[in-house]
Amino acid sequence: MYQKLLFIIFTFLFSSFSYGGKVYESFPNKVNPSEHYVFYSHGFIVEGKDPTPIHERWGQYNFPAIKQELADSSYHLIATHRPAKTPPFNYAQQLSKQVTKLLKNGIPASNISLVGFSRGGFITAITSSHLKNMDINVVILAACTSGLAKKTEIAIYGHLFSVYETSDSVGSCDDVVNRSINTVSSYTEISISTGKEHGAFFTPRKEWILPVKAWLKRKKIQ
Fold it and tell me: For 11-15, what is the mean pLDDT?
């Protein structure tokens, strides 16, 4: 009886871990229409070869740690390390093609999420504007600058979740959303107060990681 119980527990644990979502550094060769996919686009400072660069004011950007903590068993995470001086509009075109490929392979738009911080958030917004899909999920982390608010040619589409740091110069997405009123399906925004300015998103702090993951895993209305 005891051995049988151990076998059941072992089988459950093994199957749970083996089923968990994967972390990809590039677009996967095979996709499953029944699974969820999340794209994470990092900040400008990480562009290049170093995944853990150091900013003189905000400290180290720990891209590997963010990927590890953002990953989850309920979805696959695609987090590509962009080359130095990547043109954001060109990269957004590439990213939108990858999302379109998921859609063509039968993955519902509601099972696709775009997450981006700072420059990565700007790229995410452009990608959303290209796709013009009202069902895709978009997470903007400290990227709604006054410059983005003025770029009327960029409209965010889909379900939007915004997180900004109160000590940062980059704040709310309200101005961007107000001019995208017919394209944003739903809008939720929270602020965090770590005192770390833009650097609050350089590491996987629970203040932003936990609410982002909770939002990504929320039950979606069909």
Answer: 38
Cα distances (Å, whole numbers) of residue 183 to 37, 99, 168, 179: 22, 18, 27, 9
**Which pLDDT score, from 0 to 100, does residue 219 have?**
81
Q: What is the average pLDDT across 12-27?
A: 66
- 157 and 179 in contact (C-beta within 8 Å)? no
Quick one: what percent of the chain has pLDDT higher than 90? 88
Nearest by Cα to 125 from 191, 171, 76, 176? 176
Residues contacting residue 204 through CB under 8 Å, at least 6 positions apart: 62, 65, 66, 68, 69, 70
Beta-strand ranges (E) seen in 63-143 are: 76-78, 112-117, 137-141
Q: Using alpha carbons only, how large is the chain's radius of gyration in Å?
A: 18
- Torsion angles phi and psi, residue 72, rounded to 5: -155, 155
CA atoms within a 13 Å half-sphere pointing along the CA-CB vector of 76 = 23
**Which domains, ranges and CATH numbers included, belong to the chain?**
21-216 (3.40.50.1820)
pLDDT, position 7: 38
The mean pLDDT value of the chain amounts to: 92
- Residue 105 token pair: 């392979």
| Rounded Cα gap, residues 51 and 45, in angstroms | 9
- The SS3 of residue 146 is helix
